[in-house]
Amino acid sequence: MTQIVDTTSLQAAVTEYLARDQDATLIARIPTFIQLAEAKFNRQLFVRQMEQRSTALIDTTSSEPEFISLPSDFQSMRRVRLSGVTGKPCLEFKSGTQMDEYRFGISDVAAKPRYFTVFGDEIELAPTPDQNYTVEMIYRTNIPSLGTNADNWLLALAPDLYLYGALLESAPYIKEDGRIQTWGLGFTSALNDLNNLGLTSTFNAGPMTVRASGATP
Q1: Potential cystine with 73: which of 23, 107, 141, 189 (Cβ 3.0-4.6 Å)?
Q2: pLDDT for the residue 209
Q3: Would you say 172 and 184 are in contact if contact means Cβ atoms under 8 Å apart?
Q4: Bond before 31 cis per omega within 30 degrees
Q5: Which of 60-74, 158-172, 176-190 has the weakest average pLDDT?
Q6: Closest C-alpha to 167, from 26, 73, 57
Q7: pTM score, two decimals?
Q8: The pLDDT value given to residue 21
């Protein structure tokens, strides 16, 4: 049995499990099955390895200093703060409509930003920055695709997730409805195990406590 360590060995393992190594047309579709599986990973997997930190410097000389481009690998935001300000205050999320109402209410007077929203491929700050603040973003990113990388951290951590994910995507193509349940169970088990591991690695530093708002430790 092939040991899965990179894209090539993953494709070889999928071929072995499909037991159709003479079907050149099917084998040629395996990269697509992997691509479809990765799309599911990006929607359903939540682990710390998918979190990244990026900083950006506000340019008050630009025509719209309240807008900052998001990182190219951005998927969703977890936290935004002003890292160069004492205490590194976090910014509060507002919807686009709330941002417009707030900006109108303060007559768009420039000041230290307090709020943010995500708009297209940019982050919008309010109030409009009055200085060149450094903004730190903690965000969720997509998994590096095996379509453009020989390997990635997820393949090293969970080759079974990749294997069962690709096999599950192949089932409708080869009309193997009977294997959907078997491969689906393997996929779901691996996915749940990883998500549980993600929770454990994030919150395992100590017992969680509940404090009233404004209470001191």
Answers
A1: 141
A2: 53
A3: no
A4: no
A5: 176-190
A6: 26
A7: 0.81
A8: 79
pLDDT of residue 35: 98
Q: Identify residue 53 by its one-letter amino acid code.
A: R
Answer whether residue 206 shows pLDDT above 70. Answer: no
Q: Are strands 92-93 and 115-119 parallel, antiparallel or unpaired?
A: parallel
Rounded to 5°, angle at Cα 143 from 121 and 146: 120
Looking at the chain, how many residues does it have? 217
